[in-house]
Automatic annotation (TrEMBL):
GO cellular component, one term: extracellular matrix
Domain Endonuclease/exonuclease/phosphatase, residue spans: 57-162
GO molecular function, one term: catalytic activity
InterPro entries, per database record: Endo/exonu/phosph_ase_sf, Endo/exonuclease/phosphatase
SUPFAM superfamilies from the UniProt entry: DNase I-like (SSF56219)
Protein name, UniProt field: Endonuclease/exonuclease/phosphatase domain-containing protein
Source organism of this protein record: Ridgeia piscesae (Tubeworm)
Top-level taxon in the UniProt lineage: Eukaryota
GO biological process: cell adhesion involved in heart morphogenesis; larval heart development
Amino acid sequence: MTGYVMFRKDRLGRRGGGVILYIKESIQAYEIKLEKEAECEEAVWCNIVTGNSTLTVGLVYRSPNISMEKNKKIHNAIKKVSKRDCIIMGDFNHGLYSGHLYRVPGERIKEFLNLVQDSFLSQNVLEATRGENVLDIVLSSQKEFVDNVKICEPLGWDHSQIHFIIKVKG
């Protein structure tokens, strides 16, 4: 896309899939790699420089059929990144109902909720993004980093778009 820098991580071993993040050219951003125990197959991490500070932005895809090992790596990545100013977004496939009630509060969902709480992250998407479920979420280390969240019509797939403003001091 003209005027944007692309950061991507393609799905390995099969056709299609992966994650892609576009950041405006006018914003100073660079990709970062996490340690091996936190390196996720379908996640990309960038630092955005905002004046005298840095905001880490991550985009994650968590398959509904994820293995325990890969799920643990996503959790390790969130633990690592949440120690700094951050926004973590993506399709987490946990099946959260609108209003924050889960259909089946399984063990993985409980672990994820505990991770978000223990990492002092705010979940900023409060409306359904696919059917009745909130599968796509935006987590932030500070609630005020994310403003004006809007759920919009799908754009070529079955998940709604999430539009929001990132607000940080420059």
